[in-house]
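Kindly inspect both lines:
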Amino acid sequence: QRLAEARWNLAPEDFDGSYSRWLDVVVPAVTQAQKQNQRLTTAYLTAYITSETGVRARLKTVGSVAGKNEDGRDLREAWDVPPIRAKQALMEGKELPVAMDIARASAMGLIGLGVYAGARVPMAEMLDATEETVGYTRVTGGNPCAACMGAADGSVFATDEVFEIHPSCDCVAEPVIDGVEDRVTRPTGQEVFDGLTEAEQNDRIGEAAADAVRGGTPLSDFIGHVDTNVGANWIIQRPLKDVA
């Protein structure tokens, strides 16, 4: 992410060319990060199952995700959107700095999704292919939105059920092992929210939404989805006006 931000330089006179040169730098870096994340994910799941069952886990080998996004498309092909969004913004009458910021935010979001795909995609495939695992729970991480906290209610999802994400999402899927009772219970999204100060709650999901939750509105009411047109829908925080 730091490399992507440091090398970001979308030239107003050559959106496509300058963006392509940026991809020349960041795609190999993200690909390498994906390889590392896949190795770490395999090691994590092996250690997790072994510690829970007391028997050395033998995971089935899954294909490499290096150089692919979360939908399995080549990174360069999948990441063609940022300069398009900049051009659209200009056509809508937005100032150049605003259009540049829109493109940058889009690009950095793609970087985060790409790096995480190196862990999330193999994790999903291994969970589905491993006999010991019967599902997963959603565990929030980083700065979860109201939708992510609402979805992290302790429910066990089937191993073949898509793990819903969004750009900048730090949530992870934690394995559920067949016949093994959790010794340590992860906090639910509501418990995470309740553990924040009022100022932190406001900063995390917006003051109006936080007021609604403090007043009794379930976090699950904020779960929304956006059709990505290429794969699983993204989970998003619904606007307060759309919350029942």
The chain has two domains: 1-131, 133-244.
